[in-house]
Write a structure and sequence with these properties.
Layout: H1 3-15, E1 26-27, E2 37-38, E3 47-51, H2 67-75, E4 79-85, E5 107-110, E6 116-120, E7 123-129, E8 133-137
Antiparallel strand pairs: 1-2, 3-4, 3-7, 4-5, 5-8, 6-7
Length: about 150
């Protein structure tokens, strides 16, 4: 066996599971409280992880919105909070000569119905492309799709 083949074989053995039970969530030992399980996805490539704001259950006039109406409003939302960015987000100087459109912690406006929708414990998130961000807003209240 060649030296490269031996190294590859050793790496495969390191990666192979060791008769451990399947755990659906990875354990993040770096966080406080050993065994904290994180279910939030880690964006890869040029993706941004966006948390969507809670949809109001009633209108300003006090009329209760139906569950279907709230669901449609959440799907069509155009504002979200940047939770994290993939390693390749905004690194292409040719596409972003003035630098990143946003940073982690910014409230951003993006295209309606864009991205991959995820629902984790009843809370909706989106994975969107870095070039989908249209603007940064300081206060997301009152920003809605026209």
């Amino acid at each position: 066996m060649t030296e490269l083949a031996t190294e590859a074989s050793e790496k495969e053995q390191e990666v192979a599971p060791q008769d451990a039970e399947y755990e659906p969530f990875y354990r993040d030992e770096s966080k406080e409280g050993v065994g904290f399980a994180s279910q939030l996805p880690e964006p890869k490539g040029y993706k941004l992880l966006i948390a969507l704001p809670e949809i109001e259950e009633a209108t300003e006039g006090g009329i209760i919105k139906s569950v279907e109406s709230q669901h449609e409003e959440s799907i069509a939302t155009v504002v979200g909070w940047v939770m994290s960015m993939g390693p390749d987000a905004y690194v292409n100087y040719g596409r972003f000569p003035n630098g990143p459109y946003c940073q982690v912690g910014d409230w951003v406006v993006f295209r309606a119905f864009s991205g991959t929708r995820l629902k984790i414990h009843g809370k909706e998130f989106r994975l969107i492309n870095d070039d989908t961000v249209e603007a940064v807003v300081e206060d997301p209240r009152g920003v809605e799709r026209a």
